[in-house]
Records
---
Amino acid sequence: MCAASDEEQLAYALAHGRVLVTNDADFLRLNASGALHAGIVFYQSGPRSRRPLLSLLLVLAAELSAEEMRNHVEFV
């Protein structure tokens, strides 16, 4: 999926019931335009190690259902 467009990636994630985790602001624009999705977790790029991000993702997975994430953007 690396060569796929942002729209294709979002559609693929939706078709497979997967939340997209990204630091690409283009996905925020797609959300704002009304594109349907299974959920987007947006994180700011920077000097953050992967361990804290993974911990936050585990908390989100435990706290939010698939239905709650649908067409929702969570900022971490």
Note: The helical segments are 6-15, 26-32, 50-63, 66-69.
---
Amino acid sequence: MLRKAKIEDLDSIYKLISDAAKKGKVLKRPKSEIKQVLSSFYVWVEDKEVAGCVSLEIYNKKLSEVRSLVVLPKYQGMGIGSKLIQACVNEAKAKEIYEVLAVTDKISLFEKMGFSKQLKGQWPLFLRLNP
């Protein structure tokens, strides 16, 4: 079941993100930061367990980002990630956000959801300050 995150989901979301960050799948986020932006999170609940989470962080009317997409390994392959991404896309559309970005290694999943690697010939650029 998809729903917006509640304060009682904080520990589960933090654990999902922390475990995935240890494997290099998402960026590490302190619990205090997650709590501060908890209203931006969606969770997927399966068998009374938070099976997945995602955040839509809105930076301005032009740009938002799908962040911290994590699905527990035992629930992967069930379409939960797609449903979490779609919830973010739907929210961005409802709020008339112009672009939604994602930094991910799950390229085929995001392409399936309508994302592309470039915008009108523009490629993303990155600068790593702390190698």
Note: Residues 80-94 form the longest helix (15 residues).
---
Amino acid sequence: MQSTPQAHPNEEYTLPCAEALLAGTMALMTGHVQACCGAHREAMASKIVSNLTALAEDPLLSPGFKTLLWALRQRWQNQGQGAALAQLPATERSLWHGSPEAVQ
């Protein structure tokens, strides 16, 4: 009789769908803070926004918690847009006034 290896009890969880999505989102948020390159951070921010949207639309969550999730989603969306804009070369960023090619 062959025994199956047992997983470490701290590495295996059984969570309801919304809680699992929330746990994954918090892990992504932690990874976002620790990420070393902008491309990874941008991808993680995008997935965080996606997860927060899905959570905010979950019918089992309370209205107050959904309001909190929508606010967090907006902050992460703004942060992701700000990071993407910061990575653009200065010549591609939108400015109120264009700079002249040469100063006389």
Note: The first helix runs from residue 17 to 34.
